[in-house]
Design a protein that fits this description.
single chain; mainly alpha; 3-stranded antiparallel beta sheet; 5 helices; elongated; DNA-bd_dom_put_sf; DNA-binding transcriptional regulator; DNA binding; DNA-binding; YfeC-like
């Protein structure tokens, strides 16, 4: 799931948070970063995904119905889409979806 080093955009797509939120956490929490090789301008960074980063992201879950909506796009990983879908379903919809998957 998590790689050793990831761009803020990759972390955003994986977690459902926006790239801006990930960058805010990088600054606020002092996460270790390094320049992304091959990108000119020096702004592109890789976040070192250590246990501190994983733990922060795990504990940053928003209460249901609050906070920003997940940043979904055409290239969002299937796992993120399915988890987002499951969280937004009513219990009845979840039961129907489970029945469909178990066929």
């Amino acid at each position: 799931m998590f790689k050793e080093r990831m761009t803020p955009d990759e972390l955003a797509r994986l977690t459902g948070y926006s790239r801006q939120t990930i960058n805010k956490w990088v600054r606020k929490e002092g996460w270790t970063t390094s320049p992304k090789p091959g990108v000119q301008g020096g702004k592109a960074r890789l976040v070192h995904v250590n246990e501190q980063v994983r733990e922060y992201i795990r504990n940053a879950e928003r209460p249901e119905g609050q906070g920003e909506a997940p940043a979904l796009s055409g290239d969002t990983p299937l796992e993120v889409l399915l988890v987002t879908l499951a969280k937004e379903m009513t219990p009845v919809e979840q039961k129907q979806f489970t029945s469909l998957l178990l066929r």
